């Protein structure tokens, strides 16, 4: 079966700094019509960084849509012509001060494919070197380094409550010696 929905009309409702919102009139595979609200996002990166001591590098920051702080792995939006790998290196440095001697892509995944096209590229950082964070002027971030056990506890307390970070914690558990 062909599942394709053909867009017959597209109306842009909002263009923002982070996302754009459009409404699409579509023809469904069976010929009926419907509407789809679509959020367009340039994409993002997230970085799994584990210190030589076995601690996962994380940041705590307030998330306005949730009205609470969350503990997350370093992440950020793709901008301009920067590649996902360049963006991962930049975000790791900006948010944590760490630089990576090498980055390796783990996976890419969509965050909410029912209404958004945001894709997150997940990288693992190797050969970490500590430094000073270079946060943006509107970012208030607390650097954290947590063990896998502590990360599991933060998940249970819903302080880690986003998919990319929960994925990252599970990924770290697959690294020999990191349970």
What does this molecule look like?
With 179 residues, this protein is of the alpha+beta class. The chain has 2 domains: 36 residues; 129 residues, Nucleoside Triphosphate Pyrophosphohydrolase, CATH 3.90.79. Helix content is 18%, strand content 44%. It is built from 3 helices and 10 strands. The strands form 3 sheets. It has a 4-stranded mixed sheet, sandwiched between helices. The chain has a 3-stranded antiparallel sheet with strand order 1-2-3, with no helix packed on it. A 3-stranded antiparallel sheet has the order 6-5-10. Strand 8 and strand 9 form a beta hairpin. The radius of gyration is 19 Å and the shape is elongated. The N and C termini lie far apart (44 Å). The model has no long low-confidence stretch (mean pLDDT 95).
Properties at a glance:
179 residues; alpha+beta; Nucleoside Triphosphate Pyrophosphohydrolase; four-stranded mixed sheet; 3 helices; 44% strand; NUDIX_hydrolase-like_dom_sf; NUDIX_hydrolase_dom; hydrolase activity; ADP-ribose pyrophosphatase
Low-confidence stretches: none
CA-atom Rg in angstroms: 19 Å
Distance between the terminal alpha carbons, to the nearest Å?
44 Å
Named CATH architecture of the largest domain: Alpha-Beta Complex
Number of helices: 3
Number of E-type strands:
10
Helix/sheet category: alpha+beta
**Mean pLDDT, nearest integer?**
95
Helix content: 10-25%
Shape: elongated
The assembly state of the depicted protein chains is single chain
**Main β-sheet, in a few words?**
4 strands, mixed
Domains (count): 2
Strand content: 35-45%
Can you tell me the CATH topology of the largest domain? Answer: Nucleoside Triphosphate Pyrophosphohydrolase
